């Protein structure tokens, strides 16, 4: 009976296809999986967190076990502003959320009516795309190249949409170690993007789960940082930073900085959706920062991941056919393969099951009905060196068979 | 600039008025507050939780710090079904959420299009009302008496709404130690409600944060339990149980049971809104139940609260004028005063500030434009005996002055 009462959206919305893909390989014994986006458990600061949780509850129970403010723990907010080095940003420009997905959801709730446009990179993060679709957004895609989002294509797209009378609500981008492609936006491109956004008066949502996972090379400042430092603007970019990849996704913590009115409205949504993030994990994270654990911890994470990325790139070069193009990121959790136009990542996925290898076909990172098929995403953070070697060798064999 | 881009709902939605009320008394030194709904910090199982958090992270880090399933921790779900004694209910009829507000939000997202009707008790829980309003629900009220929701009034209301062509999506009720009135629905009334809902094919959302906080008297089975045991039906009632009042609101944990299809769609929303609840607090709560701490803990909570409720009722009888009617609950966190028609809880609130006493005016627990003013809510869980004595004495004086 209750099914008849579902809203149209609830009836038709998609779940993350990745879950179904992963489920379809769950019973394959000895599977080598490059599919997920899970951080390596070896990077979790287990001892420190175990101690901090015990201490925090013992010493601050009447605060951390009690209702917290929808705005987030004031101590965590203070520590975050110190950590990022923004001494002119006030706590009311910052909101703590139950993970980055949560922040992206609130921003979209605040801005998007059904039919309004969100502009995304194509491909983009599937979790955001399914949320945008569920909110009725008209998702419009702009390609990205080796320097990141193509700003010329963006300008053309915006012009076209405005001519068609569309309401563009924001531009969604993942500038650092982009999921799924691993691409990092160049400094030049970042400035072009900000200048265009300022001129066109279109807000930018900067999704930043990976910038601290840089294994080599020089960091590029975030869009928020550039807008703040060089354009004296803290409104045009809303930056979401997740703790999932640098502390542990189980904690469900992220923070978002931006325009004060927007943050206040997102907070008002948070009050209605979950009241506040977990108070214990917020305070524990505040202590983690306050005691100066983060720098060493990030160094450890990056030292851990570096050889796995190197192994993945080495095995890609060694085993995959020369007509396969791939990105060479300096951090993050993913590499990306461009296949020849005639080769489908989805077809490869099916064939790879027989070789006990798994990945995510590139088509899963496009909005519904805008899919491209000649690509796939590889995760290198959740496999051993031997698995990467063996898995990529098998993938090479499968590709040769496929081509033949 | 970004304000111009807000959705209509985002621009106009209310925050919880209770926050503003509480803010307006924040600077009153020596304030005696009966306003909040906070559980007493003395009831938090600090030592046990401190130990369980440390152990859980140390022993299960690769699980609890990692991404968890949107459905919730399988161990917690198993423990919850054992705790409640439902051996025929399967884990896919159960969802873990980031607090009860979160579950209520997902259920509403799944069912309510703008303009659809949710039927509520009047008065009702403000947190739910503001969420329903933000989702565009048409909130229709039915009064409650000493036996709880008035089912005859409900039948008339439903008939009237159906004649008007309205889509009724569900009936929202808080049967045990109702917030704000403290009323517990009688067994007879519960059966009448279920029978009506089954006949009218209208789902019930049973909000149950307080049923375990019973200080005396005999428990009445939940609506879900009655539907399950006596009508062999696990679809008509969706029951949300919160851990906020019995373990600690800082943990942001609740669980919801009901129709499998509904639970699946609510889970699909959870995936988009926050991916999953905090994985650490879920597993810690699972261990708390598994090790059998809950029974003794609840006994301790109830032993703690009982004398505060008694003190509040005694002081009410002793100090308030005889024309004030009040509820005499056997549990929960609140009592409720019915004032004479000519007396406004809002006006009393302003006057009470001068006496350094605070409470929530009854009008705050009605949907916008459906307010009644001759009532107020008193919380007894967050004050000392002396504060209750002194605060109620002052309230009596204020009422006499007001009347005069």
Overview of the molecule:
The structure is a homodimer of 404-residue chains. The first copy, chain A, has helices at 8-12, 17-24, 46-64, 74-84, 100-111, 126-134, 151-163, 187-200, 223-231, 260-273, 279-290, 294-319, 345-354, 385-403, and strands at residues 32-33, 94-97, 117-122, 138-145, 148-149, 168-173, 204-208, 237-242, 254-257, 325-326, 334-338, 357-358, 360-361, 375-379. Chain A is an alpha/beta fold and 404 residues long. Chain A has two domains: 2-44 and 296-403, Aspartate Aminotransferase, domain 1 (Alpha-Beta Complex), CATH 3.90.1150.10; 47-290, 3-Layer(aba) Sandwich (Aspartate Aminotransferase, domain 2), CATH 3.40.640.10. In chain A, the strands form three sheets. Chain A has an eight-stranded mixed beta sheet with strand order 2-9-8-7-6-3-4-5, sandwiched between helices. In chain A, strand 7, helix 9 (223-231) and strand 8 form a beta-alpha-beta unit. In chain A, helix 3 packs across helix 11, helix 4 (74-84) packs parallel to helix 11 and helix 5 packs parallel to helix 6 (126-134). Chain A is globular and about 65 Å long.
């Amino acid at each position: 009976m209750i099914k008849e009462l579902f809203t149209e959206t609830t009836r038709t919305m998609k779940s993350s296809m990745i879950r179904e893909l992963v489920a379809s390989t769950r019973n394959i014994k000895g599977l080598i999986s490059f599919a997920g986006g899970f951080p390596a458990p070896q990077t979790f600061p287990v001892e420190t967190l175990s101690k901090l949780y015990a201490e925090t509850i013992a010493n601050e129970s009447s605060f951390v076990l009690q209702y917290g403010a929808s705005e987030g723990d004031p101590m965590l907010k203070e520590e975050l502003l110190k950590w990022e080095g923004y001494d002119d940003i006030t706590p009311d420009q910052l909101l703590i959320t139950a993970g980055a997905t949560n922040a992206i959801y609130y921003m979209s709730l605040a801005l998007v009516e059904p039919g309004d446009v969100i502009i995304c990179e194509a491909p983009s993060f599937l979790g955001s795309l399914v949320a945008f679709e569920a909110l009725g957004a008209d998702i419009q895609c702009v390609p990205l190249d080796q320097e990141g989002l193509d700003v010329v294509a963006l300008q053309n797209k915006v012009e076209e949409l405005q001519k068609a009378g569309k309401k563009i609500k924001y531009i969604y981008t993942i500038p650092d170690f982009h999921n799924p492609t691993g691409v990092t936006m160049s400094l030049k491109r970042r400035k072009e993007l900000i200048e265009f956004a300022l001129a066109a008066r279109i807000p930018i949502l900067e999704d930043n789960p990976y910038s601290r996972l840089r294994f080599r090379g020089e960091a590029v400042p975030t869009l928020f940082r550039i807008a703040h430092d060089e354009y004296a603007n803290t409104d045009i970019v809303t930056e979401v930073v997740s703790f999932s990849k640098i502390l542990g996704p189980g904690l469900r913590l992220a923070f978002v900085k931006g325009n004060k009115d927007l943050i206040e409205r997102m907070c008002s949504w948070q009050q209605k959706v979950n009241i506040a993030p977990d108070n214990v994990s917020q305070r524990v994270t505040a202590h983690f920062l306050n005691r100066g654990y983060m720098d060493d911890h990030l160094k450890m994470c990056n030292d851990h991941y570096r050889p796995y990325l190197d192994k993945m790139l080495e095995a890609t070069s060694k085993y995959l056919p020369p007509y396969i193009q791939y990105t060479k990121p300096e951090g993050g959790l993913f590499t990306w393969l461009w296949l020849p136009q005639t080769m489908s990542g989805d077809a490869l996925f099916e064939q790879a099951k027989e070789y006990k290898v798994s990945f995510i076909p590139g088509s899963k990172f496009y909005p519904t009905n805008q899919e491209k098929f000649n690509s796939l995403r590889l995760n290198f953070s959740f496999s051993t060196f031997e698995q990467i070697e063996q898995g990529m060798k098998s993938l090479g064999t499968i590709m040769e068979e496929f081509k033949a």
